[in-house]
Amino acid sequence: MVVDDVSLSIQPGHVTCLLGPSGCGKSTTLRMIAGVDMQDSGEIYVDGQLICDTVFRIPPERRHIGLMFQDFALFPHLSVADNVAFGLSGSKEVKRARVSELLDKVGLSWAINDYPHVLSGGEQQRVALARALAPRPRIMLMDEPFSGLDNRLRDAIRDQTLALLKEEDTAVMLVTHEPEEAMRMADEIALMRGGKIVQQGAPYNIYNAPADREAVAFFSDVNVIKGTSNGALTDTPFGQFLTPGLADGAEVDIVIRPQHLKLDFDRGGKGPLPTATDGVAARGIVTRARFMGNESLVEFRMDYDNSTLTATVPNVFLPAIDTPLWLTIRRDRCFVFPAK
């Protein structure tokens, strides 16, 4: 994937996450920073020092940049201690002290003389982290390093890794296609699509003030309500929405996440009264209901145009198929975009 006009700045002790779908240019960006690939234009600096432009290029091994990948890339013929010490310079005593320090921090002092093949996946990942941190890199580049771990183990390893990186005051750039991982680890998220950064900011802002409909949908399932702007307003079955700046006749997408739909049982065919927060109620017929563990997922066929909307409800809520319910939407949780 071609990377187009990407500009990023990362700080010591902070995690910046490159988040986006497969093939959007995340790993290519990392490879250019690491020096594996060379960019066609632009410059890369570390601590204010130019390390690469289109002519000048410091070799990867002299960039003081650590790398971690999903396959760990440990040397099978070397012990854990020798793997961690591989990139270190100095006396044998200095190397041994740094190896012991890091293995103690990742809880693997007991495995110092073992070989990688006797360790679990999570333990190998921690050895890889210790090896990457051993030379005290200014920057740590991490390309989906947790994707090979099972879900239960992944959260614990991620948290331990994040704590150690913060302790070492390392500037981190993490690549992932998983929004949950980005939200869990990042101080800042750069959302990529088609080789470009389409939005950058703190996780809270990226999630609650998305740049476009695709940005909303990348973090969660969405419902889309169609409308047409007229006089800076768009009429929908759920009431009117402000659409300033859109020409009369412009098509509008009103996007809302399933957890922000509110449900109520039919009250004699009238439904709940409109409110400033929830707007007008629209009736739907239950077509599917499933319990998902922490919540229930309920799908509706809406009376107004036979479209499908999906709601998620905390705990167990499993209305029978063909049950009529009234839906309102959290207006303060809606996102309004010009339709594409």
Automatic annotation (TrEMBL):
Keywords: ATP-binding, Cell inner membrane, Cell membrane, Ion transport, Iron, Iron transport, Membrane, Nucleotide-binding, Translocase, Transport. SMART domains: AAA (SM00382). GO terms for cellular component: ATP-binding cassette (ABC) transporter complex. GO terms for molecular function: ABC-type ferric iron transporter activity; ATP binding; ATP hydrolysis activity. It holds the Pfam family TOBE_2. The keyword Membrane applies. GO terms for biological process: quaternary ammonium group transport. Gene3D superfamilies: P-loop containing nucleotide triphosphate hydrolases. The keyword Membrane applies. CDD domains: ABC_Carb_Solutes_like. Residues 1-219 form the ABC transporter domain. PANTHER family: PUTRESCINE TRANSPORT ATP-BINDING PROTEIN POTG, SPERMIDINE/PUTRESCINE IMPORT ATP-BINDING PROTEIN POTA. This is ABC transporter ATP-binding protein. It comes from Shimia litoralis. The lineage of its organism: Bacteria, Pseudomonadati, Pseudomonadota, Alphaproteobacteria, Rhodobacterales.
